[in-house]
Design goal:
- This protein is α+β, with helices and mostly antiparallel strands.
- It contains four helices and eight strands, in the order αββββββββααα.
- β3 and β4 form a beta hairpin.
- It starts with a helix and ends with a helix.
């Protein structure tokens, strides 16, 4: 009987230790301040409670040993690998935060020591957008080639200058072929008439001379 009692007590003690080992406690929680991929500040709380007890995580910014403001509050169920809750917080370098854990009637205390942010602030990974370059001015339209120095004649003027002047209604039109006749004397009787007239003058002059000579001879006899 004594042996059975000792064995029972040992088993109960082992179960109690095991139960306490699986029970949720403050050591299952940890917090860290870091920067995300976009260079923004975040606070991450990890719950490694293998029992999976639901816990409420509340984060407060501390100032002079008192709560300055509440960053946020979220619930989490721990896992052996660790369940994570994240709070967006643009923390300042070396800022202090209080992280409160409430898990039913099992845990109701702060993570110790308090969370202290890194001494270097987060740097945004997005590079500043370059200033917009001035809009290039459109190239000037190439000027059309200069026109030739000699102005083209006005069609109306060229036509008017080329066209012969029309004689007035009162001006007599010259007879056809009159200019040719005046230059060559073709088809004209003027030379023949002039020759006959000259011959007659010579004959008449000779007759007068001989007549006067006879008259003189007759007087002298």
């Amino acid at each position: 009987m004594r042996i059975l009692g000792v064995a029972s007590a040992t088993a109960a003690l082992a179960l109690g230790v095991a139960g306490n080992a699986l029970a949720c406690n403050i050591r299952d929680f940890s917090a860290v301040a870091s920067c995300d991929d976009n260079g923004k500040g975040i606070i991450t709380v990890t719950d490694t409670d293998a029992s999976g007890v639901e816990a409420t995580v509340s984060v407060y910014l501390e100032s002079n040993g008192a709560d300055a403001r509440m960053v946020g509050s979220k619930t989490v169920k721990g896992t052996k690998k660790g369940a994570i809750v994240t709070f967006s917080e643009d923390w300042a370098p070396n800022a202090t935060y209080r992280v409160r854990i409430e898990a039913g009637k099992i845990v109701n205390e702060d993570i110790s020591p308090q969370l202290t942010a890194p001494s270097d602030a987060c740097k945004s990974s997005s590079s500043p957008s370059p200033s917009a370059s001035e809009t290039p001015k459109p190239s000037e339209t190439p000027s059309s080639p200069a026109s030739s120095g000699t102005p083209s004649a006005n069609p109306s003027e060229s036509e008017s200058s080329a066209a012969p002047a029309t004689p007035g209604d009162n001006a007599p039109s010259p007879a056809a072929g009159s200019s040719n006749l005046a230059e060559t004397g073709a088809n004209s009787n003027t030379p023949m008439i002039a020759g006959i007239a000259g011959a007659l003058v010579v004959v008449g002059g000779g007759a007068v001379f001989f007549g006067m000579r006879r008259r003189g001879a007759s007087k002298s006899s």
